[in-house]
Amino acid sequence: MKRVYNFAAGPATLPVEVLQQAADEMLDYHGTGESVMEMSHRSPEFQAIIDQAEADIRTLMGIPDNYKVLFLQGGGSTQFAMVPLNLMKNRVADYIITGNWAKKAAEEAEKYGKVNRIASSADRNFTYIPDCSDLPVDSDADYVYICENNTIYGTKYKKLPNTKGKILVSDISSCFLSEPMDVTNYGMVFGGVQKNVGPAGVTIAIIREDLIRDDVLPGTPTMLKYKTHADKGSLYNTPPCYNIYICGLVFQYLLAHGGLAGAKERNVAKAKLLYGYLDQSRLFHPTVTDPDSRSLMNVPFVTGNADLDKKFCAEAKEAGLINLKGHRTVGGMRASIYNAMTIEGVQALVNFCEKFEKENA
Ligand SMILES: *Cc1c(COP(=O)(O)O)cnc(C)c1O
Q: What is the reported pTM?
C-alpha cells in the first residue's frame, strides 16, 4: 500500500489508524451486518454514534453544559450567513479582516445589516494579526467576528480581541482541535471539519444556549436556524451520518493520544521543525515573519521565483509530498501540517527542501 504525505489545506490528511478502523468496520459495523453508510439516522445504533461523538468532543474541548454542539451541513461558508441570520438582532456587527475567509464572511453579513470592519491586516497582504486590544467596537454591535486561523495566509490569533463586552464569534475551521481552547471566551465557534477533523460534509457549531433563539431575522429558512437543529439534537433532517461517524473516530483517536494538550505538543514540534528550517534557508522564505502571528497549521513559503516554486511543487509530488502549491493570492508553497500530519512527514518535507536548496543554489 502506498501512502503519500498530503499537505493539502482541505480536504486534508486523516490519521491512518482512523482510516484503518473505518475500513475494518465498513461492511459490518459492530455486528449489525450493515455499514454506517447504510444505516438509518433514526436507528439506535446511529443515535449511539452521534451521542458518543458529542460526548467525546465535549470532553476534548471541555465544553460546558450551557453550550450546544451542533453537527450541521453546508460547510464553513453557510455559517457566513447563519451567523448574521441568527445573531444580528440589532443588524450591526463588527468584523476583523485577517484574510479571505473573514472578508467573505463580512460580505455575506452585509446582506443582512451594517458591517463595521474594525481592523484589517490587508495593508501587508494579511501576513500578520492586527493589534486588537483597543478596537472601535460599535456599542450596537450584536457580535464581533474573527477568523481565528487564516488558512490561506498562515496566521493565527495568539490573543483574542478585546470585544468590550460583545460576544465573540470565531471561525475555527482550520485550527479546530489543534490545541486546547476555552470555549467560554466565545458566544459561538464553528468550523468545517475537512481541514483538521474529518471528511468534508460536516460543520460543527458550538453555541452558547442563550444565543439560540426563535426570533431570528425574518425570512430565515428553517434549515438555517440554529434552534431547528439544537431542538432536535442535530437530527432535524438526515445528517451526514457517515462523516459524523468518522469525526467520532477522530475524537476517540485524539482522546487516546493525550487530548488537545497532546495535539498541541505535536503541532508545536512540527511547526518548529519546519519554521526552524525556513527561517535559516537561503532559498525559501516564510511569508509570515512575525512569530506571534504564525499558525501552527498552515505554513506558506516562497522562493521569490515563480518558476522555481513550480519546479519545487512538481518534484515534491514525484517524491510523495503532495499538494504543496500555495493559494493563488500568496503564490509559492503552503504546507498544511494539521493534526494528522506526522512529524515524519514534516521531516520528509524539510529533507526534501534541503536537497532542493542544494540542487538549485
Ligand atoms: C476552508 C475554510 C472555510 C470554507 O469552508 P467550506 O467548508 O469550504 O465552506 C471557511 N473558513 C476557513 C477558515 C476555512 O479554512
A: 0.98
